[in-house]
UniProtKB/TrEMBL annotation:
It comes from the Bacteria. One of its GO terms (molecular function) is lysozyme activity. It holds the Pfam family Glyco_hydro_25. PROSITE patterns: GLYCOSYL_HYDROL_F25_1 (PS00953), GLYCOSYL_HYDROL_F25_2 (PS51904). The keyword Cytoplasm does not apply. GO terms for biological process: carbohydrate catabolic process; cell wall macromolecule catabolic process; defense response to bacterium; killing of cells of another organism; peptidoglycan catabolic process. InterPro entries: GH (IPR017853), Glyco_hydro_25 (IPR002053), Glyco_hydro_25_AS (IPR008270), Glyco_hydro_fam25_subgr (IPR018077). This is Lysozyme. Coiled coil: none annotated. It is an enzyme of class 3 (hydrolase).
Length: 294
């Protein structure tokens, strides 16, 4: 007879009558079980490949908000913006190329929000992210994270999930802004990533949908009007739900992509003090807090 162990730890024996009730698997059932196990194993093996970039970025440390603009367009005359009013808030954006950021210096200069690059594609994370993201928060700023898009390397949903799980998440603490999709000129090849306008719009939609499913928030989109017109056909369908962040280095935010009647954030220079990129939120501090709270 066969020995077994009760939950109490005592060993007992099954009777021959009990053993006769255990029927062996039929050949068909056994084959079905084996095929199911094989399929599960194949799916697990496929997951890492699907999560990786088809072509990992060669220089992600050189890719940040607006880093591709000057090679493709004139982002503006570089004249100083008008003086800040009570209905605007100053802020900065940073990435690994800034290294360890002196947040106290930026706070004392009047900056009250910051966006930090978290990820690129589905294989890169900013090695300075903790110092930059947590440091800005510790200094008193409202902060958020952004993702540098590589639409020709992996799907929009895959990149959104990677972003949301590597620093781009959101919490309703009043100090965390929704994540940003940075979509601009391709730093590694064709301007529009070798994709049609409809394919790019679909990729962006997939990113937005997956990000909202993960975080509950609609992502902000950072893009230039010129790139948007050229690569999406000036699609206007995202304007009602996704705040717009535009780069324009001059006295005004300039032309906006189709659909948006106003910008939420304006990147007005890439040569500002301390970190280069400086921005202006289009609203009062209480409106910035409202954006953070969702």
């Amino acid at each position: 007879m066969v020995a077994f162990r009760y939950r109490s730890g005592r060993t007992g024996r099954r009777s021959p009558a009990a053993l006769r009730t255990l029927s062996p698997l039929s050949p068909l059932s056994l084959l079905s079980l084996l095929l199911s196990s094989l399929l599960s194993a194949l799916c697990l093996l496929a997951l890492p490949a699907a999560a990786q970039d088809a072509r990992p970025p060669a220089h992600p440390e050189r890719d940040w908000l607006g880093s591709t603009l000057r090679a493709h367009e004139d982002p503006g005359p570089g004249t100083p913006p008008p003086p800040r009013t009570a209905a605007s808030v100053e802020g900065v954006d940073v990435s690994s190329h800034n290294g360890n950021v002196p947040w106290a210096v930026l706070w004392n200069a009047g900056n009250r929000f910051a966006y930090v690059k978290a990820t690129e594609g589905t294989s890169y994370t900013n090695p300075y992210f903790a110092q930059q993201y947590n440091g800005s928060y510790a200094a008193g700023m409202i902060r958020g994270a952004y993702h540098f898009a590589l639409p020709d390397n992996s799907g929009g949903a895959a990149q959104a999930v990677y972003f949301a799980t590597h620093g781009g998440g959101w919490s309703k603490d009043g100090r965390t802004l929704p994540g940003v999709l940075d979509i601009e000129y391709n730093p590694y090849g064709p301007t529009c990533y070798g994709m049609s306008a409809s394919a790019l719009v679909g990729w962006i939609r997939d990113f937005f949908s997956a990000y909202k499913a993960r975080t509950g928030r609609d992502a902000v989109v950072y893009t230039s009007a010129n790139w948007w017109k050229q690569c999406t056909g000036n699609y206007g369908g995202f304007a009602s739900t996704h705040p717009l962040w535009v780069p324009r280095y001059g006295a005004s935010a300039g032309e906006l992509p189709a659909g948006w009647g106003y910008h939420t954030i304006w990147q007005y220079t890439d040569t500002g003090p301390t970190v280069g990129d400086h921005n202006r939120f289009n609203g009062t501090y209480s409106r910035l807090q409202a954006l953070a709270n969702g």
